[in-house]
Known about the structure:
two-stranded antiparallel sheet; mainly alpha
Amino acid sequence: MKKQKWFVRGDADGFVGLFVDNLLQLLLVAVLCPLVCGLPEELILTRILPAAAVSVVFGNFFYAWQGRRLAARTGRDDVTALPYGINTVSLIAFVFLVMGPVWRETGNATTAWQAGVFACLVSGVIELAAAFFVDPVRRHLPRAALLSTLAGIAVTFIAMGFAFQIFASPLVALVPMLLIVLAYAGRFKLPLGLPAGLVAILFGVGVAWILRWCGWFSFSSGGGAFLPGPHWPLPDAGGFWAFLTEGKGWQYMNVIFPMALFNVVGSLQSLESAEAAGDRYETRPSLAANGVGGILAGLFGSPFPTTIYIGHPGWKAMGARTGYSALNGAVIFALSVAGAVPLVLRVVPIEAALGILIWIGVVMMSQAYQETPKEHAVAVSVGLVPSLGAWAFLLVETTLRVAGKTVGEALPGFGNDLYINGVIALNQGFLLSSMLLSAMVAFAVDRRLVAAGWCAMVSAGLSFVGLLHAWDLQAGNVVGKYGWNAAPQFAVAYFVMGCALFGLGFWRGRRAA
Length: 513
């Protein structure tokens, strides 16, 4: 067996991609927390970012070790570690739906921070517990059901979202993006064997600085205050026990529980995606490490859980193995402890590095069709619909916010120009509905009508309790609606479909007999 190398050439590209992804999350923390939650920059730079770095370095080192262990067990030298970092979806949800409301209600930034830490810890515990029960889901669901959801997220929230930013700054961002996509898709090498991703980003940074000196470009990434470290992370659960014992935190379980479920299902899909690319990782330890990472983040004072990232095939296609993961963890930890994140954001324009994320989104979209049976392509396509609806709602909500309106204020004006109620319904629980709709179609294609009926019945149950399609307006904003009979029309529709599928399945079985 060949001796494993700690670092190969493809790890350089892999590191750049994963580092940029993690850096974007740190930027979101630095920008959103003061604006939405009232958190002071000192708290963010000296407590929250170092705490988040603890979970990042733990997960990156674990998944690098896991990848090396898989390589040693299989005798392969092409194993790619699972990518890992701060969970974007949970970050946004906890900022806007937990910490923001607490700050507006109390006017106390410390209380808002404590609420976020509570949410992070509880989410991590739920994910850790789920690791011991969800493996049958991965075994029995069609691959199309697990990959189509990732494809939908990849083409909308990743590829299209960042494509807008790239085409808004073409001189800085377009050439790097095209170089990355063409080099990786065409699998050609640059002179001297230089990594395409690194060359592309350096080119973009150089152009950005030249344009900046000429007064034609300003970095949109900002940077914030610089508080030089070291800021060593120290255990501090941020008032977790007060929120637990006094019951203040439980009012946010309607956000925390669905987000934890979202993370578990998303991680399952990422594991399935990695297996489709050739690297099969065990479900239980992979998800357990995910949960432990979230718990560590909360114990050290970060409100933001970490997770396995989608996009493993993209990193594998770059030639990354396991070294990229460990290096990313070490660099993110060093930057966070040193308080240097604002300095990095002042030097490297984010626009120059977004091409790697476009590539990852494109690869994920392609994989959903390439790594499923040909006849299941229709199931993959159906599974894209909820993600497209969720993305459409994000665009609508963003547009209204910029215009100074809430969704509730604008709702009556849409009429038949845009069936906004349907867009919102698709948005609520879109990850689960994408998976279940895709599975339903895949089972139907395989003539497994009873199994398709069970997917419909599960959808009915989830709609009834509010995990699918249920929503309400609070202060003009769309929020999840949880409880009995939360989305009765959807529950009835799915129930009727389930009964019809059961009937057809039993009828076909009797005819076959």
